[in-house]
């Protein structure tokens, strides 16, 4: 049904070559994703030397490491057996502290035929995992992450001028790198200021052609890891990752972390439970700016955070893109029609005014 669009994704976004190994996987959270995997596999077999595929049980939360079975499919039994023998694999999967250099050394020594291209579309994201990080940073895999993907996106936010998205995302990422602080406000109550000093802005361009390129599909954002201990103010949330809230809730930040949650909505209790189980999940993790003019859907965070004229703020894990917080949770919240000011020593500028991008 979507084979033409999948073929275009492989060729345009990932530059998949005939001599390469392709890894595709999803989870059991949504049946339509399992059906979609079959189409990805069939098209992939036309274009790649080898296709590896897996459906694994849902992890239930964004940012949790994928299961051992996927590690074995990706790196091979010899490498994973060595990690198990050294008592390292469970620490990785639980996002416990572990000697990263030792893990990388084992994988480099023992892993064979690591896939050059990865298409990950489990409902729950693998972007902010060590699994993704080691593939892109150590093995140069090109990695498309597609959590919460809906096939209708092939006709909207995936049907875009990727050169435009790439150029705009890069320009805004450069501005974020130069900045030391950011201030986000909205007419419905968000008023949050945080530090991005000495952090690097990154561009999610949708074009993953170079070794180690990774990002979302649909793509379209510039993002940065704020300083985890320096966020103050309030973030008003209108949407959970996959639905509009019945009533808004407010996260109040002090010293970088969520100090309290206000508002009566079931999603509040979900977040509070996450904080009880994973206290480090309460810290600010990401600031992003949407750059995709074809993105418009507010009730699916994969697309919502890409909407041109929005920004998003995440809490939880950010150790894979320049931060220091390692925790099994990462979720983004979109701010609609924001006014955003940022600056550094001796300069200040308005990036967005009520959702309108200003001259960069």
Automatic annotation (TrEMBL):
SUPFAM superfamilies, sorted? Thermophilic metalloprotease-like
Highest taxon of source: Bacteria
Carries keyword Metal-binding?
yes
Q: Name one Pfam family in it.
A: NicX
* Keywords of this entry: Aminopeptidase, Hydrolase, Metal-binding, Protease
- The name of this protein is Aminopeptidase
Q: Which InterPro entries match?
A: M29_Exopeptidase (IPR052170), NicX (IPR058739)
One function term, GO molecular function aspect? aminopeptidase activity
